[in-house]
Amino acid sequence: MTGINVDRTEHDNGTVVTLTMDEGENRWNTTFTRAFDAALDEVEATEGPAVLLTVSSNEKFFSNGLDLEWVTSRGEHPGGPRKVFNAEVMALFARLITFPIPTVCSVNGHGFGAGFMIALCHDVRLMREDRGFLCANELELGFAIPEPELALFRHKMSRDAFHQTVLLAKRWNGPEALAAGVVQQLAPGDELGEAAVVAASELLRVARNREITGWTKERLYGEDATLNGPHGPADMLRNQERYGSGPGSIPSKP
C-alpha cells in the first residue's frame, strides 16, 4: 500500500494496530488520503478489542501538511486527481474522529496543517518533548481555514488555544501543547514509541464494544451533537425521554 503500513501487536486483552505513515514528509494529496482510508479499513477489520496507534517513520516529520508541489503542478501527478481531494480528505477526518475503536497518535516530529488536523482527530495524542511543532499554518500560507476545520480545532481545544492556533498560527512545542491540553502526554524522542504503545494498550480496557464507542463519538462530534444542541444540559436532564440513551445503556429502575 502506497505510503502506509499496518501492523498488529497482540496483548493479553486485545490488539494494538499500528498505522505507520511512511511517505517521506507524509504530505497530503489524494493518493495519500486514499491509502490512509484503505488502511483504516484494514484496522477496522481487526477482530476483537483493538486500539489504533498512528505513527510516522520519518524522524523529523509526523506530517508536513498539504502537498503543495502536487497542488501547483500541472497535468497528471502521482498525488492523484485534485478536484476530489477536499471532499475525500474531509471525509477521512470525519471517519477518524468518529472511528469505532479508541485511537492514539504519536507525534514524533512536526505536524503542520493537515498533519495537525489528523493528530487532533485521534482520541489521545503523545508528543516528543524536546523537538517538533504542531501548527495550523494556513494563514501564513495565505489560505483560510474552512469552517468544518475550524469546528474540529474548536472541539479539541480550549478557547484560548483555539484562538492562538487559528488566528495567530501558534507553533506549539511539546511542553506548551501539553500545558494547553492539545496533547495528553510527552516523552523523550527515544522513549516516545514505547510510551505510545503503552498508552494504546491501556486503552484496550475501553475497546470491547465498538457500537458503544462509535455511538458516543457521534454524539460528541456527529450530526446534532450533544455538545452543539440548542438546549442546555439541565433541560436535557429534565426531558431525558427526548434524547437517545445509546446502545447498552444502564436501564432505568422500575
Notes on the structure:
- With 254 residues, the protein is α/β, with parallel strands linked by helices.
- The protein has two domains: 4-206, 2-enoyl-CoA Hydratase, Chain A, domain 1 (Alpha-Beta Complex), CATH 3.90.226; 210-242, no CATH class.
- The chain is built from eleven helices and nine strands.
- The strands form two sheets. It has a six-stranded mixed sheet, with helices on both faces. Strands 4-6-8 form a three-stranded parallel sheet.
Summary, kept brief:
This protein is α/β, with parallel strands linked by helices. Helix content is 40%, strand content 17%.
Q: Major sheet, described briefly?
A: 6 strands, mixed
- Number of individual domains: 2
Give the N-to-C terminal Cα separation: 54 Å
Helix fraction by DSSP (H/I, runs of at least 4): 40-55%
Average pLDDT figure = 93
CATH topology of the largest domain: 2-enoyl-CoA Hydratase, Chain A, domain 1
Q: Can you list the strand order of the major beta sheet?
A: 1-2-3-5-7-9
Order of helices and strands: EEHEEHHEEHEEHHHHEHHH
Tell me, what is the CATH class of the largest domain? Alpha Beta
Number of strands: 9
Supply the CATH architecture of the largest domain: Alpha-Beta Complex
Going by CATH, the homologous superfamily of the largest domain would be 2-enoyl-CoA Hydratase, Chain A, domain 1
Low-confidence stretches: none
Instruction: Supply the number of helical segments.
Output: 11
Computed structural class:
alpha/beta
**Strand-residue proportion:** 15-25%
Shape: globular
Rg over CA atoms, rounded to whole Å, is 19 Å
